[in-house]
Design a protein that fits this description.
By secondary structure, the chain is α/β, with parallel strands linked by helices. It folds into two domains: 2-172 and 356-372, Glycogen Phosphorylase B (Rossmann fold, 3-Layer(aba) Sandwich), CATH 3.40.50.2000; 175-351, Rossmann fold (3-Layer(aba) Sandwich), CATH 3.40.50. It has helices at 16-30, 67-85, 96-109, 128-139, 148-158, 207-214, 232-243, 259-268, 284-291, 304-307, 322-334, 337-351, 356-372, and strands spanning 2-7, 34-41, 45-49, 53-59, 90-94, 113-116, 142-145, 166-168, 194-198, 223-227, 251-255, 271-273, 296-299, 313-316. An eight-stranded mixed sheet has the order 3-4-2-1-5-6-7-8, sandwiched between helices. It has a six-stranded parallel sheet with strand order 11-10-9-12-13-14, with helices on both faces.
Length: 379
């Protein structure tokens, strides 16, 4: 069976979509499939990736047609080109734009596709992008959400009834990424508890809520690292809130951290706190934090509630009570080293549930479902 894994964001490195495309492809290869990875990219070319071969990068260059009319046709053309060289049995579309391309490819060649939108639905009825998303969901042979929360959200938002096409498949985690050399991050003290927040800097991730909570905690010893990059305007919004903090001298915003310093942060931190103010689709960082033995503080709605457990995390309500609840949870953990250890040990055990082999088997079932039911219509 030849599976074309088509991603929209593989070129973003580091990123969750890139990691997922690589690891899911490797898992499908271990299960006996042949896999070709394509990417809707900012450039053309081949990128060799250990374990999966050359990733095909194709830049959308149809400038005569607006994105609305041209991008999915461009994606379909890339699939046609691959199909002519090496017939494809199923497409795994990671994103709704490549999903629309896979839908057009399906109409012309009969090849089914599995849609993994990679995030919550972001558009509302009345917007053409919403109509685009609904059409892709109806056309797919199977739909994989990276959490039950995501699957339910898409069905509710699009009005597409949930049937056998829909499944939730959690991302996996490779615990060996926490092994290896470490390097201390300059500016982070080693004589007091460190609160770690690892996520893109953006309003939806809730760093501003954490800042508000920390600003009420000047009576306790702590230091906070909010690591992460993101789009310039989104980072600027977070940094504006940071500039107004009374205790900003106790918070470090180092940008994106990778490699030895990334490992050092997870090993050196005492608490992991990330409280999104919107429903997170999954949250890879929560698995990472638990695997590193960190107790977690997060919000009580979203895919992250499927990642953490009651023994490994404190959940706080989203809404007006979020800031004082975050402060209370952090105070509780900062004041009880034994509680932090118990929760961290429970998190290590829970993190073992999230493997890429499990994820691969979930995607394999979705692919087989799409192929078996290829002739069915979904409105």
């Amino acid at each position: 069976m030849h599976v074309a894994v088509y991603s929209e964001h593989f070129h973003k490195n580091p990123s969750g979509p890139r990691l997922s495309a690589i690891q899911i492809s490797k898992a499908l290869l271990r299960l006996g499939a042949r896999v070709t990875v394509l990417n809707l990219s900012r450039h053309n070319g081949l990128e060799p990736v250990d374990g999966i071969g050359d990733v095909v990068h194709a830049k959308h260059s149809w400038k005569v047609l607006p994105v609305r009319y041209g991008r999915h046709r461009f994606c379909a053309r890339q699939l046609h080109a691959l199909h002519r060289r090496d017939p494809v049995d199923c497409v795994l579309a990671m994103g709704t734009w490549v999903g629309a391309g896979a839908a057009l490819f399906k109409r012309k060649c009969g090849v089914p596709f599995v849609l993994n939108p990679r995030s919550r639905i972001a558009h509302k009825p009345g917007n053409w992008k919403y109509d685009h998303d609904v059409a892709v969901v109806k056309a797919c042979g199977a739909f994989v959400g990276i959490s039950e929360t995501e699957v339910q959200g898409w069905c509710q938002a699009t009005g597409v009834p949930r049937d056998g096409r829909f499944s939730a498949v959690h991302n996996g985690f490779d615990p060996t990424v926490l092994d290896g050399d470490t390097e201390a991050l300059p500016g982070v003290p080693t004589d007091q508890p460190v609160i770690l927040c690892m996520a893109m800097l953006r309003k939806s991730k809730g760093q501003h809520r954490l800042m508000q909570a920390l600003d009420t905690m000047d009576d306790l010893p702590w230091f906070c690292v909010m690591a992460g990059g993101g789009r310039d305007h989104e980072q600027a919004w977070v940094k504006e809130r940071f500039a107004s903090m009374k205790l900003k001298h106790r918070v470090l915003l180092p940008g994106t951290v990778t490699g030895a310093r990334w490992r050092w942060l997870y090993h050196h931190a005492s608490i992991f706190c990330l409280a999104p103010v919107y429903p997170e689709a999954f949250g890879n960082a929560f698995v990472e934090a638990q695997a590193a033995g960190l107790p977690v503080v997060t919000s009580n709605r979203g895919g992250q509630t499927e990642v953490v457990g009651p023994e490994s995390a404190i959940l706080v309500p989203r809404g007006d009570d979020m800031t004082p609840a975050l402060a209370a949870a952090l105070r509780k953990l900062l004041g009880d080293a034994e509680l932090r250890k118990r929760m961290g040990d429970a998190g290590r055990e829970r993190a073992k549930l999230f493997t890429w082999d499990n994820a691969g088997r979930g995607y394999q079932r979705a692919i087989e479902y799409a192929i078996t039911h290829a002739g069915e219509s979904h409105g």
